[in-house]
Amino acid sequence: MRYSIKYGMLLMAILIVFSNCGGLKNKKVEMSADTVTLSTVNVLDTTSYKLGNQSQCSVTAEATITFPLEYKDKKATLALQRLFSDVVLEVPSDSMKISDAFAKFVKNVLNQYGEEVDEIEFEKDDRMIVYKYNSMTGIKAVYNKNGIISFCKEEVTKKNDKTTMTTHTYYNISLNNMSRIELNNVFADDVVSDISDLLKRKLLLQLKAKDEGDLMDMGYFNLDNLLANNNFFVGDRGLTWTFATYEIACYSVGETVITLDYETLKPYMLENSEVIKLIQ
Known about the structure:
Number of strands: 12
Radius of gyration: 21 Å
Strand content: 35-45%
CATH architecture of the largest domain: 2-Layer Sandwich
CATH class of the largest domain: Alpha Beta
Order of helices and strands: EEEEEHHEEEEHHHEEEH
Strand order of the largest sheet: 3-4-5-6-7-8-9
CATH topology of the largest domain: Heat Shock Protein 90
Shape: flat
Number of domains: 2
Structural class: alpha+beta
Largest sheet: 7 strands, mixed
Distance between the termini: 53 Å
């Protein structure tokens, strides 16, 4: 395994070296209207696995991560960074520094490909690489105001340089409550089926389909899974849901993205919801 990390904050660049590890590099700093400062870093990690006596499989995990750098004060910053680590990176924060969480994140990606049995030095080993896997993750903020920040995690996987899957996962965070905003924080359980019906109607409209039969002809084979879920993000005009490839349709259809505007959703929202405040 090879890994090194170079980390920059604002106008200062700080070099942090992890044991036998590689790189994390600051790219830019953004100032939001809500006093949340965002910074972007790059992280790269590689590993390999033996396949028999003459071949090997190589895996590269790369991530470009936009994360909360500063918010209000030190206490609020730490709370937000830990929540980001727990929710978006899916790395339990505990007492871990945010920079350590980045390294752990890419390591977890590598671990999805199997258990490391024997490390191979690529420069010195003459085994033929028969499989080359690449995982590229991009995390960015897609909404950052009115006490809410939403992140998108894009994951692109490749096998032998050919893209096999692209997915988008969304996470909404309340800065006021310092917690994740999930579907049950916006809508009561007994109206979720109504929201799901609205999503189906909107899909029919945006695809100019007459009925569900038309959708099936277009490749939507599992409309029972077209349900309001937690994979949505907060936007200026409404909430947007994304359904992954194979979740409701065949591979050629790809991801399905549906936005419902706030005026349509308002009658179904909880009165104390963080989101309903955006339209009051």
